[in-house]
Design goal:
This is Polyadenylate-binding protein-interacting protein 1. By secondary structure, the protein is mainly alpha-helical. It contains 15 helices and four strands.
């Protein structure tokens, strides 16, 4: 149905139009002049309006006035009162955000949760702005053990079946574990989640030996568990935040299951797992005085030598061993912090910019006559008319396009950047 105002107007036919006949008709010979034309006019009921008549030159009594054939009026079936039209799949109740009004419009918990998970999959940036409302709605809806079990299962299935949702699913699990108020005897949200993961974990050896589909599902579970280990925060009795030790032990056993069945996709999953969690796992093992990572690297080297895996997979394994030998790419401070100088830091000049003299000869800060050449460069004012030595713009008003650009970072990026700065400062002071 069309909306208001979409009804088609009746067709109007002007003189000389496609639907109008202009050929004059002669009356019967037996009738007096003009009689037949008058009778025809009474039958056709032609309006007397001048626009519906066609005048022709008078040809005498033998020629009657012309007549006009009127086309029937087309009656439209469209109505101005028809309901408003919406494309298929469009829900007019949630034009802006389907989760701002809570559970309005949803019949079941499954529909509401699944819709939010799909929405989060398509727009992960909405996590920060909508997660609080989502949790509040769940607190009013999830009031039984069965509902909590259903919620855990929906999130688990989404995190292990939808590509790239494992990280977002782990963040969602961490938030709900701290903000859901229901705490039944069967276990709170986090406990039920770990119980659900344990079901898959206990079947690890059979899954690693299974067919292609079984292994693919198992690998999705492994990577989700790795994200849970990194994102699920456990608050201690003294307020300290730690990671779940049960996940730490579980990841070690999952690695053993993968390396015990060294087919290509099992080994690729193991590489992804160690790239994701290797540094954190090794630190945790070292705190307990264990050398499990050394044993894991030895197993990788044995696989490279003995397993019938592809050449590309062997290259991946060797790259992983190389990554671990560089402390997982982290800069490890072996001595107290001191300011870097050309004398104590061999890489001091590595990131220095390259300049060019007036003759086009390149030079850097490592050159003996750097100061002299650089001073000569500064005196060439034509190259730097509006800038100080440190690059500050002195020209006043800048480009209006660049001035209008918002310099604020996304909240998620800003949080990660602050965390990075704090970790760097902590390592520097060690």
């Amino acid at each position: 149905a069309h909306g208001p105002g979409l009804a088609d107007p009746p067709q109007q036919h002007k003189p000389g139009g496609f639907l109008q006949q202009q050929e004059p008709l002669r009356p019967p010979r037996t009738a007096p002049p003009g009689a037949g034309n008058a009778e025809h006019l009474r039958q056709t009921r032609i309006p007397t309006s001048s626009q519906d008549k066609i005048s022709v030159p008078d040809s005498g009594p033998a020629m009657a006035k012309p007549q006009v054939a009127v086309a029937p009026v087309v009656i439209s079936k469209l109505s101005a009162n028809a309901p408003e039209f919406y494309p298929s799949g469009y829900n007019p109740n949630f034009a802006e955000s389907p989760f701002e009004d809570g559970c309005d419009g949803y019949l079941t918990l499954t529909e509401y949760v699944q819709d939010f998970l799909n929405h989060l999959t398509e727009q992960p940036g909405c996590f920060e702005t909508e997660i609080e409302q989502f949790a509040e709605t769940l607190n009013g809806w999830v009031t039984t053990d069965e509902a909590l079990q259903e919620l855990v299962e929906l999130i688990y299935q989404q995190a292990t079946s939808v590509p790239n949702f494992s990280y977002m699913g782990a963040r969602l699990c961490n938030y709900l574990s701290h903000h859901l108020t229901i705490n039944p005897q069967s276990g709170n949200f986090r406990q039920l989640l770990l119980q659900r993961c344990r079901t898959e974990y206990e079947n690890r050896d059979q899954a690693a030996k299974g067919d292609e589909i079984t292994r693919k599902q198992f690998h999705a579970f492994v990577l989700f568990l790795a994200e849970l280990y990194l994102n699920l925060e456990i608050k201690g009795t003294k307020g300290q935040v730690t990671r779940a030790e049960v996940l730490q032990a579980g990841l070690g056993e999952l690695l053993n299951a993968l390396f015990s069945n060294p087919v290509d996709n099992n080994l690729i999953c193991a590489v992804k797992l160690l790239k994701l969690t290797g540094s954190v796992l090794e630190d945790a093992w070292k705190e307990k005085g264990k050398n499990e990572m050394d044993e894991m690297i030895q197993r990788i080297e044995n696989v490279v030598l003995d397993a019938n895996c592809s050449r590309d997979v062997k290259q991946m394994l060797l790259k992983l061993v190389e990554l671990r030998s560089s402390n997982w790419g982290r800069v490890h401070a072996t001595s107290p912090y001191r300011e870097a100088t050309p004398e104590n830091d061999p890489n001091y000049f590595m990131n220095e910019p390259t300049f060019y003299t007036s003759d086009g000869v390149p030079f850097t800060a490592a050159d003996p006559d750097y100061q002299e050449k650089y001073q000569e460069l500064l005196e060439r004012e034509d190259l730097f008319p509006d800038y100080e030595e440190n690059g500050t713009d002195l020209s006043g008003a800048g480009d209006p396009y660049f001035d209008d650009i918002d310099d604020e970072m996304d909240p998620e990026i800003e949080e990660a950047y602050e965390k990075f700065c704090l970790e760097s400062e902590h390592k520097r002071k060690q």
